[in-house]
Amino acid sequence: MTIETAATPARTVDVSRWPDVARVPRGPFAALAGAVADRLLRRTAAALPLRLCYPDGSVVGAADPSLPSLVLHQPDRLARRIGVSGLIGFGESYMAGEWDSTDLVGALTVLATGVADLVPRGLQRLRPIVLRGQPPSARNSLSEARSNVSAHYDLSNAMFAEFLDETMTYSAALFDRLPASRSGLAAAQRRKIDRLLDTAGVGPGSRVLEIGTGWGELCVQAAARGATVHSITLSVEQREHALQRVAAAGLSDRVRIDLTDFRQVQGRYDAVVSVEMVEAVGYSLWPGYFRALDDLVIPGGRVAIQAITMPHSRMLASRNTHTWIQKYIFPGGLLPSTQAIVEITEGQTRLHTVDMMSMRDHYAETLRLWRQQFNDRRDTLSSLGFDAVFARMWDLYLAYSEAGFRSGYLDVYQWTFAPTGALP
Q: How far is Cα 61 from Cα 80, in angstroms, rounded to an integer?
């Protein structure tokens, strides 16, 4: 297959850093696949409240100009990328600057709501054959898991600080009212953590295990309640920052943070908490993850997690294919379904659900505020070494995630378990 080089509106794509963004598929197969993808795009726009705006001024789809539009700067390149690589190609085309949108979140929300029903069944059956399977690193061995986590969370503490709030909390917040404002984000993050600690029964004297330290806010809040916290992480940069925060709060005698995998932890704890970490574990390791939670909590204790979920049918369809999110944002990750979590916990552990609360609308607002701040800080991010392709990649990631929650395709739960069942 021959290639041509892509360019963003601002500059040429760095082929050494972004090889698959810089190279556009060419050749007979790419042309045929692109023609099929182009017809599918046009069919999608005709069936949904969405517009495709072409360079010659023509529009396909909804007549109302106030509806979300995809502005196609280089429609042939977009079609060929989609035809050859599916949604990975769709994302790479955005990274390359080949299309934009008048309302990126709105357009992606429309697509998330309706596009699955518009792909012909024959093409859906070809998915496992045409699209790439997951790379070996998706198995998440001990070394692979550390590398996968580092690829995202060790990007730069300074970069994350540009768009997160003062708590440096990188998960769904819990607001007191919606829509939310940036000024209320830190309080909403602390409210979220307080609720999780409450359902886990964390108080004076509690022995707490946290799986996935983040940048340390939960450690600080739990220790401030009088708990003793053992937190684990695979991110070197997060651990360094979290240790500094714990020390600054005067809580180093109550908090221990280790650079280790959940599969290597021993002991028993009154409470085990884990915020949006199961998504990084990978499909094959979910049973081991929940069995570890069960093994690590004492009888009468509580396990409290926060987990992003996707529909069970879509999880099954995507578990063996490589997605744009896995390739560029979260290598080795996969979102579970609520059905998968229930089947594993009830079928393979003593864990039974005692509390469950959806925070879907709150995550959509959290992501809106993060994306707004991220885009406001692009000049600073550039000075930190993050180029235009990275900025477009993260803009798409944050918008795609927000759209997932606004459409109902994604959900997020605070989910509390008690080890009250009998082992299978």
A: 20
Beta pairing partners, 70: 52, 101
245: left (phi over 0), alpha (psi -120 to 50) or beta: alpha
Q: What is the rounded CA–CA span in Å between residue 247 and residue 270?
A: 24
Host H or E run for residue 390: helix 388-407
Q: Which domains does the chain have, with CATH numbers?
A: 3-131 (no CATH), 138-419 (3.40.50.150)
SS3 state at 356: strand
Tell me which amino acid residue 276 is: E
In angstroms, the CA 333 to CA 278 distance is 9
Q: 1-15, 78-92, 334-348, 389-403: which range is least confident on average?
A: 1-15
What CA–CA distance (Å, rounded) separates 46 from 193? 44
pLDDT digits (tens, 9 = 90+) for 389-420: 999 999 999 999 999 999 999 999 999 999 98
The C-alpha atoms of residue 181 and residue 393 are separated, in whole angstroms, by: 24
Sign of CA dihedral 59, 60, 63, 68: negative
Exposure b/e, 143-182, CB count within 10 A at least 16 = b:
ebbbebbbebbbbebebbebbbbebbbbbbbbbeeeebee
End-to-end, the C-alpha distance of the chain in Å comes to 53
* Burial category of 320 from C-beta neighbours within 10 Å (exposed 0-12, middle 13-18, buried 19 and up): middle
- Alpha-carbon distances, residue 48 vs 94, 116, 409 (angstroms): 20, 12, 16
Distance (Å, rounded) from C-alpha 398 to C-alpha 109?
Answer: 12
- Rounded CA-CA distance 16/5 in Å is 12
- Encode burial over 199-226: b for 16+ CB neighbours within 10 A, e otherwise: bbbbeeebbbbbbbbbbbbbbbbbbebe
H or E segment at 198? helix 185-199
Give dist(CA 86, CA 415) in Å, integer: 34
pLDDT digits (tens, 9 = 90+) for 349-363: 999 999 999 999 999
Token reading at 353: 């659900």
Closest among 234, 339, 223, 351 to 293, alpha carbons compared: 351
Selection from 166, 217, 173 nearest residue 191 by Cα: 173
Copy the structure tokens of residue 8.
Answer: 């963003």
Would you call 361 exposed, middle or buried from its count of C-beta atoms within 10 A (0-12, 13-18, 19+)?
middle
DSSP 3-state of 253:
coil
Buried b (16+ CB within 10 A) or exposed e, 61-91: bbeeeebbbbebbbbebbbbbbbbbbbbbbb
